[in-house]
Amino acid sequence: MATNLRRLEEVAWPLFQAGYVPMIGEWVALPIWQVAGGQRVGDALYDQILHPAAERLIQLCHAVLRLEGDSKGADNDVRLARERGIPVYLRLEDVPGC
């Protein structure tokens, strides 16, 4: 998870420079999970917090950047974004201003 999170964080600066406020679901969900008593990634509490937090965030987003790589969570984020008519970008270079 740390490696994937770091990869996501690497695009935060270019997005911020382009005028966006980047958001990664784990930035919100992991502190909640830890305070709620989460013990290990993938435990029942993890599933109760991580995906719902991502869904709530997507409701507030103007776009989703889906980076390459296997991720069921990211695939679900894309599905939710498309259902809501939110643009989905597959490369940082495709995001307006980047």
Describe what this molecule looks like in 3D.
- This protein is mainly alpha-helical.
- It has one domain.
- Helices cover 54% and strands 4% of the residues.
- It has five helices and two strands, in the order H-H-H-H-E-H-E.
- The chain has helices at residues 2-10, 12-17, 25-35, 44-58, 72-83, and strands at 64-65, 88-89.
- Helix 3 packs antiparallel against helix 4 and helix 4 (44-58) runs parallel beside helix 5 (72-83).
- The chain is globular, with a radius of gyration of 14 Å.
- The mean pLDDT is 94.
Properties at a glance:
mainly alpha, 5 helices
Indicate the topology.
Elements lengths: L1 H9 L1 H6 L7 H11 L8 H15 L5 E2 L6 H12 L4 E2 L9
Helix pairs in contact: 3-4, 4-5
* Largest sheet features: 2 strands, parallel
Class based on secondary structure composition and strand pairing: mainly alpha
Strand % is under 5%
- Main sheet: strand order: 1-2
Return the string of H and E elements.
Answer: HHHHEHE
Question: Per the principal axes of the C-alpha atoms, what is the gross shape?
Answer: globular
Roughly what percent helix?
40-55%
> What oligomerization state is this entry in?
single chain
N-to-C CA distance: 26 Å
**Rounded mean pLDDT score:** 94
Discrete helix count? 5
Radius of gyration: 14 Å
- Uncertain stretches: none
Number of strands: 2
How many domain units?
Answer: 1
